[in-house]
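Chain A, query sequence.
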Amino acid sequence: MIITGIGYALSGLVGAGIVAIGARFLLAPATAAAAYGVPADPETGSAGAYLAVKGVRDIASGLFVFILIAARQPHVLPGRVRGEDGLCEFQGDSFGVGEVGGVNRPG
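Chain A, predicted structure.
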């Protein structure tokens, strides 16, 4: 049981790290993008939307780690959680695109 506890502790640290990375993309997007290796200026073009979507995706991914930990059955949930994570990413992307004027549609 000690190994399981260590696994949960390491998973929690990874989840917290992913959430922190996502929060950095929301709070200091230019700095986070430069540290990530893809410098982007959120003031120009749609880079702000890209950085916001990246932050939301990272936060959602990190929170799903905590869902697995809380369930205490990590071997059962990954398929279901990945499906829900995909839905969250789709909604986050849609929101980010909408914030910068959306997709140009004819008519």
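The mean pLDDT is 75. The chain is about 75% helix and 0% strand.
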